[in-house]
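Box 3.1 A note on notation
Throughout this textbook, protein chains are presented in two layers. The first layer is the amino acid sequence; the second is a token string describing backbone geometry. Keep the layers aligned when reading.
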Amino acid sequence: MHRADAATVSYTEIGVEGDLATLRHSQGALCQCGAALSELQLAPVGNRA
């Protein structure tokens, strides 16, 4: 978002497919030059009952 009174400061996206979760994060707006997108994949830890 780009406005005179506000702007995007970060972007976070969480995706789940089956038993795998993926977290993607960027410092700043994705459309800005140099805004890198980091990705972390999380594997299941098992049954915690």
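DSSP finds no helices and three strands in the chain. The longest strand covers residues 10-17.
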